[in-house]
Specification:
The protein has 2 helices and 5 strands; from the N terminus they run H-E-E-E-E-E-H. It is mostly beta strands. Strands 1-2-3-5-4 form a 5-stranded mixed barrel. A hairpin with a 4-residue loop joins strand 1 and strand 2. The N and C termini lie far apart (44 Å).
Length: 140
């Protein structure tokens, strides 16, 4: 019985080792695995960033060291659920965001897995844009 329990709870089945909003400077140089919703993506001409959100906060993902298929990054629409593994590094001094609890660090992604691909949304639930009542009811 103990052997089966170890297989069920072994590290190969862990989706995440940390929550996005709980990673900070003390995790520097540690390998972590996180899961969450794609909150925002930015392609700055060769460097791609993504903000990953879970119920604890937002973590910036940096794909500079990503060795996988970069076309996979084009599939990351808003609200897509992903799992990422990588090493936590301090952000460069000029890109620290004091408004975020994770603003001093970023995850240098080495592995990416899409868990659930989201279709293009007609409106973002958390945004302040005005969506008509009919539109909200149709996509509730």
């Amino acid at each position: 019985m103990q052997k089966n329990k170890e297989r069920l709870y072994g590290s190969e089945f862990l989706l995440k080792t940390h929550h996005c909003g709980k990673i900070n400077r003390s995790h520097q140089s540690k390998n972590v695995s996180v899961c969450g919703w794609v909150n925002k993506t930015r392609d700055l001409g060769g460097i791609t960033f993504c903000d990953l959100r879970d119920k604890y906060g937002i973590l910036q993902l940096n794909f500079t060291n990503f060795k996988g298929d970069l076309n996979l990054l084009k599939l990351l629409s808003l609200e897509t659920v992903i799992q990422c593994q990588g090493v936590v590094e301090l952000r460069p001094e000029n890109s620290i965001n004091p408004q975020m609890s994770t603003g001093e660090v970023e995850l240098m992604v080495t592995q990416l897995k899409i868990l659930s691909q989201a279709e293009t949304l007609p409106f973002l639930p958390q945004s302040h844009t005005e969506a008509t009542e009919d539109l909200r009811l149709r996509y509730r």
